[in-house]
Design brief:
The protein folds into 2 domains: about 250 residues, QueA-like; about 80 residues, Thrombin, subunit H (Beta Barrel), CATH 2.40.10. The protein is built from 8 helices and 17 strands. The protein is globular and about 60 Å long. The protein starts with a helix and ends with a strand.
Length: about 350
Amino acid sequence: MQSFDALTRVDAASAFDALASLKIPAQLEAKEPAELRGAGRDDVRLLVTPARGKEMHASFAQLADFLSPSDLVVFNRSSTIPAALTAQRADRSDVQLHVSTRLPADLVVVEPRQAIVAAGERLRLPGGAFAEMLTPYKGSRRLWITRLYLSEPFLAYVSRYASPIRYAHSTQTWPLAAYQNVYADEPGSVEMPSAGRPFTFEQLADMHERGIDAAFVTLHAGVSSPDHDEPPYEEWFEVPAETAAAIARARRRGGRIIAIGTTVVRALESALDTSCRVVAARGWTDLVITPERGADTVDALLTGFHDLRSSHVAMLGAIGGADRIARAYRTALDARYLWHEFGDSHLILRAS
């Protein structure tokens, strides 16, 4: 007889395999910021996957109605930096470089978009700078460890010469402000931690007035991983002591921990001590969260709608259950929710 854990792995794999076979229609890809489609950045829909029962349809403005005064909402304060550069090869052809993650010693992880590069190749960058391709990043077919030769500090350089990363579903270039969360104040993510995008200062103030506390972590998000079976790679995170203390206080008073985005879950799960308590921590994490591993630091997750093959969906299954997440995604497709960073929101309450 199979063990319960083995059955859980089989059920989760079956649910996600079925989910990965679904297609996201092009018309459900959000191509522009919500404020251009409606009344403001919070003018998006909210699908709620409750602990029990069927999904509920709401608006993002109603989010606080699903929370309680004893709850703690945890945000990722990492802000987005421009990270798309046009480089020139020795034959004068152009290649797009997406800078993903900053490493020590002036090294970075980059993604040459739709280009094959070689170790030792030097690419000319704007402003007299160079990028030297050193070696493929571990376990990746598309990412390279690269040394940048810049004439000014990294953040100053990309602010001057780079543009925000965007993908094919976005039909035009948007300013960097479109890729920022209103509360973010620590530059470092090259792709917006987009779960928090619909929040406005007014909504944050309303939550505070309702007695819903807030805390912050930092996780600098790199480029997304579109390759099937390619795991997430290391990203820098920090969980401050005050956030660990706020989580402990919320637990003592019976409150729930609400993560705003998968990056928050990844940071908190990377900051567990041997007693499975969240403690102050910082460093690099390559943690992959799946239904088999579980995720016990949060009771709910607010997120967007993810690529159906991505590791993010497995994390959702760790919190909401693989079958419930598969059903919720089918509901979202049937109800024509919008995908990607400018799309609609999904509140997942932990399965009972």
